[in-house]
Design brief:
heterodimer; A: about 400 residues; mainly alpha; 3-stranded antiparallel β-sheet; globular; B: about 260 residues; alpha/beta; Beta Polymerase, domain 2; 8 helices; 7 strands; about 25% helix
Chain lengths: ~400, ~260
Amino acid sequence: MQQANRLKPYYENLSFDREDDRMIINFGPNHPSAHGLLNLILEMEGEQIKKATPNVGFLHRGMEKMAENMIYNEFLPTTDRMDYVAASSNNYAFALAVEKLIDVEPPRRAQVIRMLLLELNRMISHLFWLATHALDIGAMSIFLYAFREREYCLDLIEDYCGARLTHSAIRIGGVPLDLPDGWLENLQKFMDHLPKEIEMYERLLDTNRIWRMRLENVGYLSQEMATSWGATGVMLRGSNIKWDIRKNEPYELYDEVDFDVPVTETCDSYGRYKCYMEEFRQIIRIVNQVIKMYDGTEPQLIANAPQYLSAHKEDMMTQNYSLMQHFVLVTQGMRPPKGEVYVGTESPKGELGFYIYSDGEPYAHRLKVRAPSFFHTGLLQDWLPGCYLADVVTIIGSSNTVFGEVDR
Amino acid sequence: MSFRKYTPKNDVQKKSYYTDRFLVVPEIPKLEITDALLKLHVETIGASVEVLDAHTQRDQVIVYVNHTDIVATLTILKSIGYTTLTEMSAIDWLEKRDGFEVFYQLVNMGLSRRIRIKCFLKNGQVVDSVEKLYRSADWSEREMFDMFGIKVNNHPSLKRILLPEDWQGHPLLKTYPLHGDEFASWYEVDLIYGKEYRDVIGPEQRDAAYVNEEDTRNFSRLGHEVEFCEMPTKDDVPIEYQEQKQPFLIRDMKPENQKNIDDRR
């Protein structure tokens, strides 16, 4: 029934200059090192890339369209599927944007739990990056070690919210649950143990001849290119620009904790690797401080804003009005005031922002997701020309893109 | 005689099923710009282009300019330190105002300030590309074209980015239904099988919640499983689990040999 000639490879529709002896290589979409469905059309002269055309959209699910057809609380679990490596950071960015829209501040205990979740997610994402990046370069053992630690992180998250990957652990206005018994002790134990592991990764890689040869002076990203392309996160700090939204525009409790923003002057893949390793230490530093903040907080978990947010369970079961309000908020959805906000947060990949235009309806009039990986992938078309084919994998790896986020 | 219920085609987005008659949704107040630096920046813009409106909402500065002044405005902003175009896209106002609002979200990393430039485009008007100033606009403008069909002047390659290049329709328009239009339902059928197989295959079912109990090719009913493409059955079909057949891994696994780890390392 299927006609073979119907499925034409995509590149046949493109016209290339055939007068020279350039070779065209299709990298992907199913290349294991592309970390998702990325199709790179590379024009090569010998081993050197002359032109690179990233082709994205294979994972497009129309999330912005879905957001316009869902009430705000309904859309929250969908955000898990954007950066599926660190789902809570997406939930958080969305929740924060809606909170800014309705002008609600979550209670302190919720903020502490959110901070812990966010930093755990950053840890998961960075460990995942280290593991897969090293695997792409050819270092197999580091993959196993990093995934082992990642598994502990996922266990902790699972203990908290029951899910390993799609957490939905952060709600608009707070968090749904308090920490289970013994969770903080487990987290503390893990955090005490982790520096040794980080040190081991560095021992394995830092002076590894192959690792350094594959990374040093590979993928030089100039400051101009990084800022012009909207690179954020480690990509920007890897180009020697000290910009971290947690530090520069602090949200949640980041202004109460002490941490450094690592930057590198070399602007190459090795420098970015060093940045990631330093960020591991900063995460541990932040978490250790936040754990101490938990004691002494009030047990309230969701902000008190009956117009927009359901009351907590106990009120709902005892107070008639709370139950009615909950019913209206679940069936009709909250109606935020008319207006627009853009909120950017420092997700593990870079600046994850949500732009929401509310028309006073329970459905957003427009919701735009500013995904860091989208711009990091676009950057490849200026970044790759001049590089060699063998370095493409290193460059894609060190840009740390997730295609759920690129295509949305 | 019965008529089909009329549904307006200019906005097919989901609507609230009930709205209180007396409900007045408040508007976030539009305030004066209080921040001295941002005020200065807005005045710098105002010196050379016409600023239609400038205010803050929730501490975020929004500046409205004419759509012909976008490149001039962003050139000024880039020269005063707004080196990154964080995000740009459009808002569909075709139903109410017959046009689009295009916004440019910029950030000044040296001063930690953000500013949002907005302009209004009448339907059919084009906006100039800012790709020469900010390379990130290359992909953002392509996405805007893909999603809204807004044309951009002087763009090096204005083609679709997320959707296939031979796609028809612009999905983020309010006139575009959530589950796709007629074209979308035949797109993959035509691509994989060919137009001549439309009758055999039928349109693509694009509703994620769709379940057909008669269709055993695409759906299976738990407890009533049949072979692929066979007729559905109402009889109970016992499920065999591999544990019952005992492959060697499970056969050799005894409870006394198992080790339970009480403690996370």
